[in-house]
């Protein structure tokens, strides 16, 4: 098959493309407009590969999308293109509304037009896979899990924009019969994550001797999913998921933010010890994020029971691989840090 992957220069998108090209016979068209958080470095090994093509296109540009479909005639779409940083959505929601909602609408419209013109045998194989987030479900208390039937209750401009895009995809399936699947994942981590996100920020700040910012008391809980496990899950759902269905993808790794930071510090103490003492000395509690969701936790039993997927990495193996990767790619990280200053976004000042 030839797969059109939107947002393929992003963190998860590039991991998906690497997985496809290394482990399947599919070809990939990478469609990305190369925003500040995009990088083609993680795909450089495929330059010149006959199974890989790159198109610099914004998903809000309907005419450009039509040109890509006409040129490449894909057999399916995996839609990852999105603005994804919660703090940025709080400070400037417009880009999130335009890309995540309007952009998804443009892509759905062009995918439907293209799908309707396909011969019957190609229609039978075509599908549109929309990749979303567990943040659309809102916040959990101390117990319970998000399931595929959990009521949507987004609490940030980012999660609201993703919830809207999920609803659009579902509507295009039920109203226009576009063959779709939807996945909602927990927090991803791993190689090539843009260094504004929590795990890279902690690693890079620690190595630079800077404060390690932790929102509030660090008691917020997230379920962590290694990005290569997510890539495998996405292809599993794309190839074998039931049309019109939604699948939650989680890592079975709930961690308090403070415990996560301590785990990273312990690994750095082992792998790159600092003469100044344990890295945990740098932990600094900062004013909490506006509307900060207390806890996310995914029930991924549906994808496990119906499609046979489980994460291969434990939190311990995945976070070690991640820290080791960043230690070996500091030049890449520091180059990207220059584009936004290298600080964790959304901070309002340190707390005592």
How many angstroms does the end-to-end distance come to? Answer: 56 Å
* Unreliable segments of 5+ consecutive residues: 347-352
Summarize the helix and strand pattern as letters: EHEEHEHHHEHEEHEEHEEHEHHH
Shape: globular
CATH superfamily of the domain at 2-193 and 224-254 and 293-313: NAD(P)-binding Rossmann-like Domain
> Whole-number radius of gyration?
20 Å
CATH architecture of the domain at 2-193 and 224-254 and 293-313: 3-Layer(aba) Sandwich
* Mean pLDDT value: 94
Percentage of residues in DSSP E strands: 15-25%
What summary fits the major beta sheet? 7 strands, parallel
Structural class call reads alpha/beta
Helix content: 40-55%
- The CATH topology of the domain at 2-193 and 224-254 and 293-313: Rossmann fold
- CATH class descriptor of the domain at 2-193 and 224-254 and 293-313: Alpha Beta
Task: Trace the largest sheet across and list its strands.
Answer: 3-2-1-4-5-6-10
């Amino acid at each position: 098959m030839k797969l059109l992957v939107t947002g393929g220069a992003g963190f998860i998108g590039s991991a998906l493309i690497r997985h496809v090209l290394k482990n399947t016979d599919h070809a990939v068209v990478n469609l990305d407009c190369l925003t500040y958080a995009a990088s083609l470095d993680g795909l450089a090994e495929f330059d010149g590969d006959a199974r890989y093509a790159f198109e610099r296109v914004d998903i809000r540009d309907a005419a450009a999308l039509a040109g890509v479909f006409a040129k490449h005639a894909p057999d399916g779409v995996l839609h990852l293109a999105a603005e994804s940083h919660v703090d940025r959505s709080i400070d400037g929601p417009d880009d999130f509304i335009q890309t995540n909602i309007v952009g998804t609408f443009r892509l759905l419209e062009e995918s439907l037009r293209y799908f309707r013109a396909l011969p019957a045998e190609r229609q039978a194989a075509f599908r549109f896979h929309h990749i979303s987030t567990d943040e659309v479900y809102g916040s959990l208390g101390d117990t319970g899990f998000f399931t595929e039937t959990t009521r949507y209750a987004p609490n940030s401009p980012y999660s609201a924009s993703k919830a809207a895009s999920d609803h659009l995809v579902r509507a295009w399936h039920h109203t226009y019969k576009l063959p779709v699947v939807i996945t909602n994942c927990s927090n991803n981590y791993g190689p090539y994550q843009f260094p504004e996100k929590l795990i890279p920020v902690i690693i890079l700040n620690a190595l630079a001797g800077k404060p390690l910012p932790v929102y509030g008391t660090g008691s917020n809980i997230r379920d962590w999913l290694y990005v290569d496990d997510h890539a495998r899950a996405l292809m599993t759902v794309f190839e074998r998921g039931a049309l019109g269905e939604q699948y939650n993808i989680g890592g079975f790794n709930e961690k308090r933010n403070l415990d996560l930071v301590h785990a990273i510090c312990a690994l750095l103490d082992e792998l790159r010890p600092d003469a100044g003492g344990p890295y945990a000395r740098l932990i600094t509690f900062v004013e909490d994020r506006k509307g900060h969701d207390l806890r996310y936790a995914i029930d991924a039993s549906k994808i496990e029971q119906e499609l046979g997927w489980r994460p291969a990495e434990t939190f311990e193996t995945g976070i070690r691989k991640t820290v080791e990767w960043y230690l070996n790619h500091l030049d890449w990280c520091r180059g990207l840090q220059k584009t936004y200053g290298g600080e964790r976004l959304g901070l309002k000042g340190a707390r005592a």
